[in-house]
């Protein structure tokens, strides 16, 4: 059902390699020889059966919609390799025949041709005089394809980027049929599959060329996998009297060769060719099944790494406003220190001493924790920070008394003036003087 071939686990790592920076991304082109189906459109439209008769097709367009009931019909097993090759074999492994082995035991005489018929809805309404209007509302165009297995030269552009991969297979050249034989015809024009095909010299025998025999056997096995999906048919119930639905008797619906409504896709021959090409490429997911030789090929490798490029202009654009605001704040701080004549801090001990005021102790009695319900009178009391007026709490140093700065109510607090020796400030200066002496 996927739209691409199957790839092995960690394919990017195995193919592209890695280093301390992580795995690489890579792109490269690969050429090889492998089997491929070549599909030809033999019949296109109702009553286009002349070439079908000439080639001995097992059915014609009358079996397809609108004349017939099949929207898809595939005959893919005619002339297949006989299973089993003999009636009697010895018990046990090895497949040894009973008695003398026939001369054609294990010989590949023909590769089955795929005869595939399908009809697609043209979406054009049928004319009023059409004989098909009793069952159908729109025109269907039947087509019959003949697909033969060839040996072909592939060219694949691989692209492993990140967790994804993409391949673009193209068939550069068809090298010829895998088995170049043909069946003779009966008197009625049909092909005689009971007789051996001709010419016999094109048969592929186990000996003497063992390598060629193994290659054709592998090609045949891959074609057999595809034929298991294709064989069968799909019937389409007509919309009149209705309802219209597909009756499936094929595993082709398990592939991407049909749409979600179980009807075959348009350009079926081309879709089938690319589907088999992806089946061939899927062998790379199981390298133990490949018999190949290693070759050097040019590869483009890239690796994504996080890096930072600092542009001075952009840095100044970002940091200059921050630096300017910081300098302004520092200037305001220096101005405040110069005006006050001292410095301040937000340490707990310093906050504690600045709030020591008997007036505040008196008005906060009963609400020392600050919990609710908080007294409204205290809530609306205006507090200021400054010099406590005469008669309030004083600190003494020797014989001289110095005014104390703290929080208090507006009526007992005066502004702080620069140069006045308040409590604690003068003491610090005297202590510094003693140390210098």
From TrEMBL:
<keyword id="KW-0472">Membrane</keyword>
<feature type="transmembrane region" description="Helical">
    <location>
        <begin position="315"/>
        <end position="338"/>
    </location>
</feature>
<keyword id="KW-0812">Transmembrane</keyword>
<keyword id="KW-1133">Transmembrane helix</keyword>
<protein>
    <submittedName>
        <fullName>Uncharacterized protein</fullName>
    </submittedName>
</protein>
